Amino acid sequence: MADLFSAVAPAVARPSSDGVTRWGEIALRGYQSDVADRARARAASAKNFAGRHGIIQGETGAGKTPVLGHFAGLTWKKGKRALLIVDRRRLVLQMASTLDRMTIPYGVVMDASTRNVYAPCIIASRDTLDSWLSRGMSPGEFDTILFDECHKVTGDVYQRIIKRYPNALRLGFTATPQRTDGKSLSPTFAWIESMVSASQLIAEGYLIRPEIYAPKELAEIRKSGLKTKGLAGDPVTHWRRHADGLPTVAFTSSSRNSRELRDRFIKAGITAECIGQSTSDDERERIFDRVRENKTKVLCSVRLLIEGVDIPELSCAILWSKFGSLVDYRQALGRIMRPAPWAGKTRAVGLDHAGAAGVHGLPGEDIAWELGGDTEKKQAERFKSGERDRTVFCGGCGLAYTVSASVRACPECGAKAPKPERKKPSGDGPVTAQQDAILDRMTPSERVVAQDAATMTQWQLAVNTAIRNGRKAASAAAMFKSKTGKAPWECPALKIGYIDWQSPAVDVLGAFAWRKKG
Q1: Is the dihedral of CA 85, 90, 94, 100 positive or negative?
Q2: 180 contacts 328 by C-beta, under 8 angstroms
Q3: Which residue has the higher pLDDT, 162 or 432?
Q4: 434-444 as b/e, with b when 16 or more CB fall inside 10 Å?
């Protein structure tokens, strides 16, 4: 293992005369080769074995599978064995197709498809391998384990596999290196190396930036931390308004909701289908083919299509579920960001009926992922503190650009940069979304507005709670800090003036700009 991840050893798949690393038919993009080199150096520089295990993060569509294959090939060329673990049958087939094209010898451990189990590289279905190991069966020993969708690796099945191979080096691959509950992926992994930023992939044409339409008021309320009930807007109406005719995937919260949503589209004369756990593999492939050919306009599911489905023709995603998880949100919208020029795809549209954009931001925004499990919280703090510049869409020509101290107007047409509006979110308790609500275009500048509104709403809630309990202003400040991580006087959005924090909380009602006393 030491020579495989040596920082100085030359790559086995040597660059060709044009400087590109090639394996069979597949040539690694520049940023793919770069992240592979960085990962090898990171592992080689670790002070102990536990510090060598790491994650390669790459956006959906960045091309993680060829990089995974690259490490499998390096292992093989060093005379060692690699285990590639995936959690779905479709992903096993996709990985096998990639290794075929890369001319890397492999075997498969997956139910009736099992073959060549002592090959240098083994592609294993997670559940089949776990079943084998529980019965004392094994495809042999491995020097390197490569995990696809490694944000799931803290689960019991993965941990049993890791325990079986304690001396194997672990390398994970995912677009979202965080558990859906926000907890850390440490100590299973010790570091993260990111391939390339989402903004660069979009700029270079590898991804399409989606247009996001959401109920803005609901988005602001969700960011504030208030509980909401239901979803906003009619899905058929808004699909016709913003994405009419585009191949669409719809994500729902349950199988029942998936069937009901399918029936709503069919009743409106729009071809729609459902896919679920009971759908056979052969039927799934037939459904996917109908989606690719645009014979089926809307495909409804619960979670089956959030990860591991490569249908670039998909151009619209309907979020018909709350999407409280940043991981699920980014993964779901990643399904529509791949380009498909052969299908005439020119745009991607997200119909966010839950206002999730107010919580998680817009797809295509760059995120500094960390192992600590609080990536989402830190991302929000960057907006609140003003650490990030504001990105806007020009009202004149539609150009997206970043507003900064030196850039106050559109570089293309010279139109003045729009200022963020500051709105007070309505309501101070549970909110029920309305079917007749309008989904509006969400822009990066509105993300900042939602952050400010969220801060002000949290402060109002803290003050009102302190008043009800007969407490002092200091109690409101403590409750606010427990929710936001900052004291109220540290938040510019609140415009806090002088306050006697030992005075009754009711005296604070007039101490911030957007709330009148009484």
Answers
A1: positive
A2: yes
A3: 162
A4: eeebebeebbb
Interatomic CA distance for residues 508 and 467, integer angstroms: 10
Dist CA 235 CA 265 (whole Å): 8
Read off the tokens for 34.
């770069």
- Rounded Cα gap, residues 72 and 196, in angstroms: 21
* Burial class of residue 3 in the structure, from the number of CB atoms within 10 Å of its CB (0-12 exposed, 13-18 middle, 19+ buried): exposed
- Higher per-residue pLDDT: 432 or 39: 39
pLDDT of 426 over the 60 cut: no
SS3 content of the chain, % helix, strand, coil (to 5): 35, 15, 45
Residue range 501-517, pLDDT digits in tens = 777 877 765 443 333 32
Give the β-pairing of 22-23 and 26-27: antiparallel
Rounded distance between C-alpha atoms, residue 348 and residue 289, angstroms: 19
- CA 493/CA 449 separation, integer angstroms: 10
Mean pLDDT computed over 433-441: 73
**Average pLDDT for 471-482:** 83
Q: Cβ atoms within 10 A of the Cβ of 389, count?
A: 14
Handedness of CA 508, 432, 226, 220 (dihedral sign): negative
Report the helix count and the strand count for the chain, using DSSP H and E. Answer: 15, 20
Taking residues 285-297, report their average pLDDT.
93
